[in-house]
């Protein structure tokens, strides 16, 4: 038998371009590292209670809180390296969104408005949406909200019947009142969550 008969041709075959197509370039990896470092610096500038409320993995939260407590230069350097390794193990996008929401109140308010608009459209279009809303916001006056939804639907039908040319679409007062009712409820819930987060942070500090 010829010696080459035992040779593994597949193992000796040169690597194809496809083998490396999915591998990130060194430049991309370096940029991702810089982005994570910048994100880490933004995270440690946030209040402890806000970090705790972000829902990040506990191992990363503990490392960030430890970094904030570390005072020595060498200790911070080592802890930074540790935090950097941990951040490569988590999805950074939700953390970036949370930082952006905290840093820019306008962005947070815009998100709240969009959320209220989506809820209004759902409540008007889906009968089951009211059940879900009440499960998430049980303090809402269900009868009052149901009346607003019914009147807003009537306003929508009336607006749709208007001539298309020369007449602006008018959805009526109930449509606007429904939005304000939803917005107020969402703001109250957000404020309650924020107060709860602050209480949690104070309890952690006492420990």
Give structural notes.
The chain starts with 8 loop residues before the first helix and ends with a helix. 10% of the residues are buried. Helices cover 73% and strands 0% of the residues. It has helices at 9-12, 26-44, 48-53, 58-69, 73-87, 92-103, 105-125, 128-136, 142-160, 173-206. Mean pLDDT is 78; it is low at 1-15, 17-21 and 165-169. The longest helix is centred in the C-terminal third of the chain and has 34 residues, at 173-206. The protein has 207 residues and is mainly α.
Largest sheet: none
Large-scale geometry: elongated
Strand content: under 5%
Summed up, the helix count is 10
How helical, in percent, are the residues? over 70%
Low-pLDDT regions: 1-15, 17-21, 165-169
What structural class should be given to the helix and strand makeup? Answer: mainly alpha
> From N to C, what is the helix and strand string?
HHHHHHHHHH
Architecture blueprint of SSEs:
Layout: H1 9-12, H2 26-44, H3 48-53, H4 58-69, H5 73-87, H6 92-103, H7 105-125, H8 128-136, H9 142-160, H10 173-206
Helix pairs in contact: 2-6, 4-5, 6-7, 7-8, 7-10, 9-10
């Amino acid at each position: 038998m010829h010696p080459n008969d035992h040779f593994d041709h597949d193992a000796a075959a040169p690597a194809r371009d496809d083998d490396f197509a999915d591998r990130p370039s060194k430049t991309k990896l370096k940029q991702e590292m810089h982005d994570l470092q910048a994100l880490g610096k933004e995270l440690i500038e946030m209040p402890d209670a806000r970090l705790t409320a972000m829902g990040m993995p506990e191992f990363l939260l503990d490392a960030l809180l430890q970094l904030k407590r570390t005072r020595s230069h060498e200790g911070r350097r080592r802890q930074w390296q540790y935090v950097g390794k941990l951040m490569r193990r988590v999805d950074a996008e939700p953390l970036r969104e949370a930082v952006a929401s905290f840093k820019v109140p306008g962005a947070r308010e815009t998100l709240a408005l969009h959320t209220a608009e989506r809820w209004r459209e759902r409540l008007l279009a889906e009968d089951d949406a009211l059940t879900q809303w009440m499960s998430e916001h049980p303090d809402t006056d269900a009868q009052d909200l149901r009346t607003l939804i019914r009147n807003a639907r009537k306003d929508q039908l009336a607006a749709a019947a208007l001539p298309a040319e020369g007449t602006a679409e008018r959805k009526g007062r109930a449509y606007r009142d429904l939005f304000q009712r939803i917005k107020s409820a969402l703001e109250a819930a957000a404020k309650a969550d924020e107060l709860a987060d602050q209480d949690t942070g104070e309890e952690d500090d006492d420990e």
